[in-house]
Amino acid sequence: MDAAPFDPPLEAFPEDFTSVLCVVAHPDDIEYGTAAAVAKWTEAGTTVTYFLLTRGEAGIDTMAPDEAARVREAEERASAAVVGVTEVDFGNHHDGVVQYGLDLRRDIAREIRRRRPDVVVTGDYGDRFVAGMLNQADHRAVGLATVDAVADAGNRWIFPELVDEGFEPWSVKVLAFSGTSRPTHYVDVSDRVAVAVASLEEHTAYNSALPDDFPKPDQLVPMILEMGAKAAQVEGVTHALVLDVVNRR
Q1: Rounded distance, CA 202 to CA 59, Å?
Q2: How far is CA 23 from CA 29, 103, 168, in A?
Q3: Residue 2 clears pLDDT 50, i.e. is over it
Q4: Domain CATH for 202
Q5: Is the pLDDT at 132 greater than 90, yes or no?
Q6: Which of 19, 39, 124 is nearest to 80 (CA)?
Q7: Most buried of the four, 24, 39, 127, 136, by CB within 10 Å?
């Protein structure tokens, strides 16, 4: 699962921002690496908020969806608090069957207009992650919808009902994708690995339900961030979150 080097080396992710919105499908999606960068940003005084389109209610085979939704929402809030995030919001889409479409775009655009972030971070919407691993359907739907919602959020005449709700248009400066096989930038998180592991460890019920041979948080998070450092090719960077930055204004 080694990351291939990129030529030229990746650029450092810009630091001239004060607010970030992370948009993902499920509880724990942010914790597979992105939380390390979140910890760095919040420690620097950046406001970071989370928007999850589902509550992960279909994610635990031995737990009924209503119960799983309550448990996983609580775990996500606890996980976010570890890296300095206090504002965590959830949509009402259904785990496992999130559908790309106008409803999804509108919900994400509304959250962008409400939070008014400089930076939006979401997951890659390709059919494969890094190292060829298959990407899950909800991830693909939410990632693609976020691309369109960033544009929607800045256009008064797309979803004009949002203006009626009190949400004026907002233009995002940077859109970035995690979990990408085509990174352009990196965030040096060499000293944030432990806090990122602790954030993922808050998903106790979900982690306990994973197969016995699935890597534990203290194995998986460092592995992901070490792969990022290999892609970054920067001396002294041992762990990195890599991102595909596709919209820099």
Answers
A1: 15
A2: 9, 15, 19
A3: no
A4: 3.40.50.10320
A5: no
A6: 39
A7: 24
